[in-house]
Amino acid sequence: xxxxxxxxxxDIVAADARGEVKTLSIATDFDAASIALGASIACSGxxxxxxxxxxxxxxxxxxxxxxxxxxxxxxxxxxxQPRRRINLERSLKIGDELGGHMVSGHVDSTATVLKREDLxxxxxxxxxxPDALARFVATKGSxxxxxxxxxxxxxxxxxxxxxxxxxTLAVTTWGGAMPGDKVNFEVDxxxxxxxxxxxxxxx
Length: 203
Description:
Structural class: mainly beta
Low-confidence stretches: none
Distance between the termini: 33 Å
Mean pLDDT: 93
């Protein structure tokens, strides 16, 4: 589990596709000694398993992850190449501060950036999601976009907007996001289960 609070921006240093699996090497400022093999790290919102860790290069740690067919089909991972920057978050530990909202790292689909409006210090983004997922997005609710916990400001059909503060723009990849970009989208867990429960008639 994660919280959607980004703790580092990683750099992809290698991407190797072999058959149905894509192996990514990611450079980070995380301490190599603190990353165990098999650990979960959210990579721009996608929960991925660490398969190796080394301490080398300008940034002190490089870890590798593998992306399988399902991940490559429904997220932006298939397009990731060296020099791309991605948002990183370590998995939540018992007792950690829950600063965002509960995020599983199980991406539902991609969302498209429709509009970027710079409003001085803040920036408003408008997104579009597949029609089937629009019912999970509610005004003042939470969404995870590229792993970042964001509050929904407005909703209209399958489009919604979020306002990003200067800190978020500075410490994540959002500062460079532009219209037309695809981002990983995960619906709020509470919205998912509420919608599922609503499908069953009351006894």
